[in-house]
Amino acid sequence: MCALALALLLWCDMRCVSGAERLFKVHPCVAEALAQRQPVVALESAIITHGMPYPRNLSTAKEVEAVVRTEGATPATVAVLEGVVHVGLSEDQLDFLARCKTALKVSRRDLPYVISKGLPGGTTVSGTMIAAHRAGIPVFVTGGIGGVHRDGENSLDVSADLSELGRTPIAVVSAGVKSILDIGRTLEFLETQGVCVATYGSTKHFPAFFSRESGFKAPYNVLNAEEAADLIVGMHSLGLQSGLLLAVPIPEKFATVGQQIEGAIQAAVAEARQKGIRGRDVTPFVLQRVSELTKGQSLQANIALVHNNAKVGSGIARALSERMHKPERRSRGGSQIHEEKEQGSHSRPVVIGGVNVDFIAKGTTKELSYGQTNPGSVCQSFGGVGRNIADCLSRLGHKPLFISAVGTDSHSDAVLNYCKHMDTRAVRRLQGQRTATYCAVITEGGELNLGLGDMAIHSQINEQHVSQYEEQLSSASLVVLDGNIPVSTIDYVCSLAKKHSIPVWYEPTDADKACKPFLSESWKTLTYISPNLAELCTMNQTLLLPTPKVLSSSLEDVLGSAAALSRPLLEHVRCVIVTLGALGVLVCGEHDAGTVTLQPQKHSRKGRLCAMYYPALVVRSEDTVNVSGAGDSLAGGLMAGVLQGRDTDTCVHMGLLAARLSLFSPHPIAPCLTADAIRPDRAHLQPWAKPTCIWMES
Asked: Which secondary structure element, helix H or strand E, spans residue 264, and what is its range?
């Protein structure tokens, strides 16, 4: 192939990928849940646009989403809006879809047309499977799938749902197939397509939507959500590109009307044939006529089975999520992979610190007026220095034991639910106490106007509580302390760390609390400290050391002052990491091979001291969403590098990349943060300057 042709093909490929990204949008709540590996359930929208009349279609859609949320999963209703495939809809989008009279019914074949014309559409089973698979959602819940129509051997009227199940690896949870279809031929067609079919429950009797039994049996059955999750894991482990159908019988109390509904179905099908109704128009016509003939009983049964499917599907998605977090084992007869050691109580990091529920109120006017209501936006996020660092390390593969304290209020329920990906078994829940909260009022330009904090519960992260985890502390790979915890707790942990030669990282939370380890001899046990310039001054002042003033805000003066303030602390602390915000970071410690050594060493210092300056990565102010977690992300990325035994340059680069991701997220720790996102060989994604030695001991 000539070079010009190859270049043209590559260009076309890039254009196609870029165009596909623009035509596919995942709702932020769904994207966040997927990033955290939390259970997500895909839902179709053809039932909204073509299955029920307004407003019953809207209320049912909201009810089904509520069932999914109640069962501990995130709903992701799929639809096409203005030619864009949406995975997850807002309430306004659901309302629009329910009222829309022009929405098309969108299967695989219809996607190109609907997108090219910028039209709205409700996705069928086939269309929803395509979108769910692209988004990375493994479980999809619907009422009933399409199939081979009666007399399909002559009309060749076969739903695209069946062929989609044969080529898209999604687990579809449904009440079998619609009873207006030829169920026997449908099961035969699924077998031909290589689709694994199993009933959910104690019997292999295949359900027929409104009836618990169709007269046919499925080849397999699973008893519960755990067995269903194992079946899905097996499908994906084999790399099969076909789907899985899990058939759930309608609840018993609604099955009694099945005979009456079946009679109405037969009459409606005959009427459709007489009127010449064919193809995609058959199902909505029959469902409408059946509802009329049964005086609404079929609609109530339909809603009940969809609710039941949503409950079952959410349980399966939750069990599947738990399977994904289990330690991997080798094949039978082989040895177990030592991931259990990493995730167990030994040789893991331990983080001790605070949890905050943050409320950020941002005005939308240049000035805020006191004594009256100002227009603005209020958002909630979950923070706390200790929580942020534990969150960061968990996302980077070093799941630490997190020791903290919260109340027994709605805030604690919310934050612990958000932190399911973390090891929070050592988070103390105190009756009658309030979870720490922080409220910041900021101007349109991002400047802090007023801050209020209710942090009293941090005093309950005391020595008595922490000492319950002495075994984990005594064998930890790293212990991290944040400045919110009491002085007595810091002293206790430092004495234990000294006894067992455990490295300790102290992360001050503000200038006032930076002094805590320096009120006693505890500071001499610290391996790492990561203050900003103000906190570094406080540490020196607490030790009654000369504290040189920063002469100006120039980079040269800031670095000179930071190095001078760090020097006396390096008599005992192995490494001082001074965070300088938008300027970058200064790393001070023992010189080794042209840089500062970050790896903890048990022998006494032998090399010369030096300070290395690393500039921050370039971030445009207009791209910055939230600055509250950048410092904690920097520290967490650095810690992950140290725990992996990386060289200093790589550790700092990992920290800077983690901080950069945090700036782009409304959350202190970006949900999209992964070890892959900050891996060392991603340097080409963000050019960064090499470090500069600004001081070395003679």
From this structure: helix 258-274
| Both tokens assigned to 403 | 């020791």
What's the total number of domains in the chain?
Answer: 2
Structure tokens of 174? Answer: 């449904």
Run of H or E including 139: strand 139-141
Q: For residue range 200-220, what is the model confidence (pLDDT) as tens digits?
A: 998 999 998 888 888 899 999
Residue 520: both structure tokens together? 């006693």
| Local confidence band at 566 (pLDDT 50, 70, 90 cut-offs) | very high
Single out the catalytic residue among 65, 105, 164, 178: 178
- Backbone region of residue 296 per phi and psi (left: phi > 0; alpha: psi in -120 to 50; beta: other values): left
Instruction: Clarify whether residues 298 and 164 are in a common domain.
Output: yes
The pLDDT mean for the chain works out to 86
- Tokens 């949503």 correspond to 310
191 catalytic per annotation: no
Whether 115 contacts 23, CB under 8 Å = yes
Tokens linked to 362:
């941002």
Q: What is the pLDDT of residue 9?
A: 39
Last residue within a domain, chosen from 286, 321, 356? 321
Distance CA(338)–CA(341), nearest Å, equals 5
pLDDT score of 338 more than 50: no
| Residue-level pLDDT at 367 | 80
Same domain, 49 and 100: yes
Is residue 464 included in any domain, yes or no? no
Q: Which residue, of 117, 137, 157, is where some domain finishes?
A: 137
Q: Which of 176, 162, 168 is closest to 130 using CA atoms?
A: 168
Residue type, 319: A
pLDDT score of 676 more than 90: no
Structural contact between residues 45 and 79, judged by C-beta atoms closer than 8 angstroms: yes
Q: Which domain holds residue 132?
A: 19-137
| Active-site annotation holder among 32, 44, 535, 590 | 44
Asked whether residue 270 is domain-assigned, the answer is yes
Judge whether residue 241 has pLDDT over 50.
Answer: yes
CATH number of the domain at 286, please.
Answer: 3.40.1790.10
Q: Residue 29: inside a domain, yes or no?
A: yes
Residues 122 and 78 both lie in one domain:
yes
279 Rama class: left (phi>0) / alpha (psi -120 to 50) / beta: left
Please tell me which residue, 591 or 390, carries the higher pLDDT value. Answer: 390
- Could you give the angle at which helices 56-70 and 91-99 cross, rounded to 10 degrees? 150
Does residue 158 share a domain with residue 110?
Answer: no
Q: What is the pLDDT of residues 603-637, one digit of tens each?
A: 566 678 999 999 988 777 656 666 778 899 999 99
Q: Note if 44 is an active site residue.
A: yes
Q: Are 211 and 304 part of one and the same domain?
A: yes
Both 292 and 269 in one domain: the answer is yes
Residue 177 in contact with residue 207, Cβ under 8 Å?
no
Q: Are residues 214 and 273 in the same domain?
A: yes
135-157 burial, b at 16+ Cβ within 10 Å, e below that, comes to: bebbbbbbbbbbbbbbebeeeeb
- What is the pLDDT at residue 325? 56
**Same-domain pairing of 179 and 286:** yes
> What φ, ψ does residue 693 adopt, rounded to 5°?
-80, 115
Any alpha helices (H) in 501-554, and if so which ranges? 533-542
